[in-house]
Amino acid sequence: MTIDSKITESKMFEDFSTPTFQQWREAAEKTLKGAKFEENLVTDTYERIRLQPLYRHEEIEKYPYLSTLPGDFPYLRGTDEIGNQHEPWKVCQELACSDPEEFNKAARNDLEKGQTMLHLVVDEKRSNDHLNQEKVNSRGVSIASLQDFHKAFQNINLEEVPIYIEPGISGYPFFATFMAYIIQQNQRSNRVRGCIGIDPIGQLVQKGDLPYPINQAYKKMAEITRWSMKHSPELKTIVVQTHGYHNAGGNAVQELAFAMATGLEYLRTMEKHHISIDDAAQRIAFSFSIGSNFFMEIAKFRAARMLWSRIVKELGGNDTSQKMFIHARTSAWTKTIHDPYVNILRGTIEAFGGIMGGVNSLHVSPFDEAFGPPNEFSRRIARNTQLILENEANLSKVTDPAGGSWYIETLTYTLAEKAWELFQQIEKIGGMYHSLIEGLPQEQVSGTAEERMNHIKSRKEKIVGTNIYPNLDENQLGSHVNIEQVETSVKNEAPNPVTHLNSNVEFVLLQDSLKTFTEDSSMENAIKAAKAGVTIDELLQAMCLTTSMNPSIRPFSFHRAAEPFESLRMHAEKYKLKFGHLPEVFVANFGPVSNYKHHADFVTEFLKVGGFYVSQHAEYQSISEALHAFQSSKSKIVVILCRDEKFPEVVPSLAKSMKQCNSDVTILLAGYPPTDDRELYMKEGVDDFIHSKINYYEKLVTLQIKGGIRECTN
Q: In what residue span(s) does the Methylmalonyl-CoA mutase alpha/beta chain catalytic domain sit (predicted)?
């Protein structure tokens, strides 16, 4: 027998015994040297899920549906039998250009270079109401009338290119004007695919109120859906989006529960308007943000399909109706202004998680998204991120790549169970709308957001380039952008609702059409009015002529995770503009830095996070030498650095001497000595201590105030 045949016939590892879990745990605990297993190896998440360091097959045997295949209920492993191999996810990059011509140019370019679904971002604040031009901004395409659709979609065949649009509060008149364009272009409405999605609850979350009663919003949602069923059967007309909860700091459990509750409310509402569960469910798209917790996000999308299929099945929906369509975008919460190219890596990881979770269409945010509208370069990098994941990483060649992972399967079911519990709480209140009126989602999300911010400020949660590893020498990416100039240019382009007409005949036709729509706001009359030149805003105003009470809720607070630390850097940069240099901190190093290098590195990075420049790196051998250097520096803040055993010898004398030279100086000691020693050092002049347990943000704010930075930059 040859060596090769022996290797072929032998069984790998047959000579090794399989250790038990208990044996592994005992071995792991030995490496902890007395520290507790639960405290050091078990990770708590914002979802109140305890992540174990090791998962085993035995733990997932209790879960149902693990033996199901892709395309089988409850669609844990995807809604298609062969996943992305049948049709890859749609590359659905947002095109947030400021005007229709710019959008058209970008759309045609990007469709030629890999984009497969046209995603128009509507500037909701931009209306053509010439009396309210302060509403205009540059965060989307300015679509005001039928003319703008002609400009935006020139030379784009919407029978061939699927679309994705969330038109916001103007959904009904926007949809009507879009369909007027399709009809005028002699394009077949039954060939239009994708989504023009109405989401009144999502708008309520984003804005805090609606310009019309919720029942009217639901009525118009039903009218759009019914019209689409007849004329555009492949077009989804309802969106359930959870970006508001995500961007307010919510967790995956909350996103899932609120999505399910909203979706269920829309199904029930459509049924009240005589639209069946099957017809309604097949016209709903879900839109999620993808966070940075990679495995949690994979589990979130898998759990979402399970939960939604269960809800639709309970309502009597058929197999097709139980299948969930998921659009996703990489998180706005996680993106930063400082060290912005790191956002490319964040977007890649988030996109990877979304694809692994089985999303149907995807937007990867450009790395400069936090600054404003992206440019062609950043759009290309974001788009190519998806194309590389599809064509080079071959993620479209495998179905449910996360399936079978003991960790991800356990996380999926745990997440689904917790989301279902919260979903049931919402149902007891009376559904998603009533829960928002009462404030349950706001309370839930604000609690999670507060916990997140506490972790960020204490650096328990790290943001590379912002609260850890900052780069003070970077060139600010957005320094050249004049937002006020952009907004002014867009305002100046706003059309007057009367001057765009060519004759008195057209004006009379417009007025008659608007009057007819005001009396009977049917979809047919809305389309006729749009053809006659009535603007989207005028149609919306006609819809809002009601004496009923419009809904309002306690608003959510939307932020990015990095904002507190970005504020620190902003103050430091303003200081630099005024004085020509960053605020300086004098670091008094006693003895060879190599003896306490980890302390020195910690202090330097801590100060840089706040925008401070560390002015001294010398090693001092005496109090007088350090004192002389301090007097020359004119710094208002001092950090004393030395080995812990040198504290009694160095700290009291140096602190006292420095205070005698300058009573206003703030003196910090790197370290956290015992209580008695701290009290002694503070009596001699030490103001505070720098160590790993502090709230970094609050400490740096205090230093900026004491250093006069805030005073001169406010």
A: 45-543
Angle between the 563-579 and 696-706 helix axes, to the nearest 10 degrees?
Answer: 20
> Is residue 558 within 8 Å of 565, Cβ to Cβ?
no
Beta bridge partners of 589: 619, 641
Predicted local distance difference test score (pLDDT) of residue 522: 85
CA angle, 108 then 112 then 117, to 5°: 75
Is residue 290 classed as helix, strand or coil in its secondary structure?
Answer: strand
**In contact, 346 and 368? CB cutoff 8 Å:** no
Contact 303, 259 (CB under 8 A): no
Task: Kindly give the pairing relationship between strand 361-363 and strand 613-614.
Answer: unpaired
Cβ atoms within 10 Å, residue 462: 11
Contact at 8 Å (CB) between 409 and 63?
A: yes
Rounded CA-CA distance 623/386 in Å is 59
Q: What is the DSSP string of 399-439?
A: S-TTTT-HHHHHHHHHHHHHHHHHHHHHHHHTSHHHHHHHT
Query: Across the strands, what pairs with 327?
Result: 287, 361
Q: How far apart are the first and last CA of the chain?
A: 84
pTM over the 0.85 mark? yes
Q: What is the pLDDT of residues 401-426, one digit of tens each?
A: 999 999 999 999 999 999 999 999 99
Q: Is the dihedral of CA 483, 567, 709, 639 positive or negative?
A: negative
Tokens 């729509």: give the residue. 517
Share of the chain above pLDDT 70, in %: 88
Give the tens place of pLDDT for each residue, 468-497: 999 998 877 654 444 344 334 434 444 444
d(CA 59, CA 481): 53
Paired with 588 in beta bridges are 640
pLDDT digits (tens, 9 = 90+) for 513-559: 656 656 556 899 899 999 989 999 988 988 876 657 899 999 999 99
Q: Select the more confidently predicted residue: 185 or 35.
A: 185
Question: What token pair was written down for 388?
Answer: 């590389």
pLDDT digits (tens, 9 = 90+) for 47-73: 999 999 999 998 898 898 888 999 999
List, in sequence order, every residue forming a beta bridge with 361; answer none if it has no partner: 90, 327
- Classify burial at 650, counting beta carbons within 10 Å of its beta carbon; exposed 0-12, middle 13-18, buried 19 or more: buried
> What integer pLDDT is reported at residue 714 of this predicted model?
64
The tokens describing 127, both together, are: 């209306």
Strand partners, 587: 639
H or E element, residue 670: strand 666-670
Joined together, the tokens standing for residue 121 give 């971002």
Give all strands (DSSP E) within 557-665, no chain letters: 584-590, 613-614, 619-620, 637-641
Domains of the chain listed by start with CATH number: 563-713 (3.40.50.280)
CB neighbour list of residue 213: distance below 8 Å, 6 or more residues apart:
546, 548, 549, 550, 551
